[in-house]
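Record 1 of the preview.
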Amino acid sequence: MRFLLHSLGEAIQLILRADRDLLAALGTTLQVSITSTLLASAIALPLGLAVALTEFPGKRSILSLLRTALALPTVVVGLFVYAFIARSAPLGELSLLFTPTAIVIGQVLLIIPLITALVYAALQESIQVVYEESLLLGASPMAACWKTLTESRIAILTALMTGFGRVVSEVGVSLLLGGNIRGVTRTITTAITLETSQGNFSSAFALGLVLLGLVLLVNLVIQTAGVRRTAV
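->
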């Protein structure tokens, strides 16, 4: 217990001193996580809306695949992308491996199924009520889609924040594709792995506290959005 308290005390001091390596890892984490979430959302939102709006052969199979992908291990996604961007791989000439771009690619692939599935679930009720009523009232399909999205904006925001929470705390993709390079691709999770392996528990605890704060902030946003939705 004394060791734990001592490590936590030093961790808090590192945070208060704004340790340079800690801030660098935090900056990289936010950079790749926000970029990944924005890119994945740009793909997943239209996909979720399209799946919710249309009936087509194999729809149940697509939904089953999306649900399966929700539990896809991050290291598997990292390995899949690695096979394409390694130096001897088809895209090796682009020199993407061990760059922030590689991490973003992996994280985008990781959360597209997650956000798509959550958006689809969020739009199920709105499709039957808002979309169909908008069409009956003379709205164009595009206007009806926009109305449906705006009416479900809180649930959609929750889906996006859930995707962000997934990538900000993952380690497999960042470690395999980023290489944990100091000041370049080292994220909070990969830094925790490194510091722990080297016995620097104070630094690991400091990074862990920062990551915990980020995750708590994301959960707070989601819960606040849910409360507002219920109130409305």
